[in-house]
């Protein structure tokens, strides 16, 4: 199966250079595996604005209602330098499909970044988003953005990779400006989109039908908006169960009663968090192969991203994506 090459901005300390405040480099397994199938744009905003390696730490400080980037050791304010760099960098890099940031960083963190009161070095008063990451979200509101730590969770990682490679492929469809390419994209993603939202799938289907004979640019723009809305949240387990039941329907005449019961038992175990989804989909794909169902074998639902990126390890928290 063909996969588009996603463009991913990544914190430079995640395997590219020893640029952390203490001179460390972090080796991240997913970033390393993605290197073979993605185009990375590494960046360390702190080094880029002139902070050295190693360096005194910077932190986010609340000054009234304003958030500032300050180096406590010298009381040096780096806010304007960071905002200028972020604006120029983000405008320069072109189209981007995703971001992988260093978590809890005052520049790159997207969640749980500590924010302090001015003059109080002891306890944070709230938590929020890093200054560079905040600009990235504003500039690329529809890109998929995650922290390296959260990507250790299997469900979060699954959603991130699914969205990342889907957006990358749609970027190529947009560039082709062809209804045929859009129809192919939508057809291949039917059951993947169904898992995310049946309502969203129907809305996208109406756009592809284009009964109003709208110009291709208008259709693509509307489809893109619908695609981002569909990917806003990860699928629920019950939605995956529904999709698998739909896929079973293709083989209702070929499957024996015992074979159907076996798949239903697998689905029940998946619903109860006792098995991964792949335990069910691998069985259903084997039926598609057996019956030579080319339509199902082209479905991205079975492999929404390159199989080389699959990893059964998890953080141990056992939670679904959030």
From TrEMBL:
<protein>
    <recommendedName>
        <fullName>DUF1722 domain-containing protein</fullName>
    </recommendedName>
</protein>
<dbReference type="Pfam" id="PF04463">
    <property type="entry name" value="2-thiour_desulf"/>
</dbReference>
<dbReference type="InterPro" id="IPR013560">
    <property type="entry name" value="DUF1722"/>
</dbReference>
<dbReference type="InterPro" id="IPR007553">
    <property type="entry name" value="2-thiour_desulf"/>
</dbReference>
<feature type="domain" description="DUF1722">
    <location>
        <begin position="190"/>
        <end position="306"/>
    </location>
</feature>
<dbReference type="InterPro" id="IPR017087">
    <property type="entry name" value="UCP037004"/>
</dbReference>
<dbReference type="Pfam" id="PF08349">
    <property type="entry name" value="DUF1722"/>
</dbReference>
């Amino acid at each position: 199966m063909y996969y588009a090459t996603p463009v991913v901005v990544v914190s430079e300390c995640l395997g590219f250079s020893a640029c952390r405040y203490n001179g460390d480099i972090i080796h991240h397994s997913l970033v390393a595996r993605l290197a073979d199938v993605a185009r990375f744009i590494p960046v360390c905003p702190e080094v880029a604005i002139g902070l050295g390696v190693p360096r005194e730490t910077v932190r986010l400080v609340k000054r009234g209602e304003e958030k500032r980037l300050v180096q406590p050791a010298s009381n040096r304010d780096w806010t304007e330098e960071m905002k200028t760099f972020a604006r120029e960098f983000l405008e320069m890099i072109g189209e981007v499909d995703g971001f992988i940031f260093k978590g809890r960083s005052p520049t790159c963190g997207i969640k749980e970044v500590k924010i302090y009161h001015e003059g109080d070095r002891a306890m944070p008063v709230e938590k929020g988003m890093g200054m560079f990451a905040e600009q990235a979200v504003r500039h690329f509101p529809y890109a998929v953005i995650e922290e390296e730590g959260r990507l250790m969770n299997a469900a979060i990682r699954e959603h991130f990779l699914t969205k990342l490679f889907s957006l990358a492929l749609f970027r190529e469809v947009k560039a082709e400006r062809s209804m045929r390419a859009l129809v192919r994209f939508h057809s291949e993603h039917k059951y993947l989109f169904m898992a995310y939202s049946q309502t969203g799938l129907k809305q996208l289907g109406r756009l592809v039908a284009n009964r109003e004979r709208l110009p291709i640019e208008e259709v693509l723009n509307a489809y893109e908006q619908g695609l981002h809305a569909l990917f806003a949240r990860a699928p629920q387990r019950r939605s995956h169960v529904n999709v698998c039941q739909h896929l079973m329907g293709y083989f209702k005449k070929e499957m024996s009663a015992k074979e159907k019961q076996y798949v239903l038992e697998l689905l029940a175990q998946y619903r109860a968090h006792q098995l991964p989804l792949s335990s069910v989909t691998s069985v259903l794909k084997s039926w598609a192969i057996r019956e030579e169902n080319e339509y199902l074998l082209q479905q991205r639902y079975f492999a929404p991203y390159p199989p080389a990126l699959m990893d059964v390890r998890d953080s141990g928290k056992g939670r679904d994506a959030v």
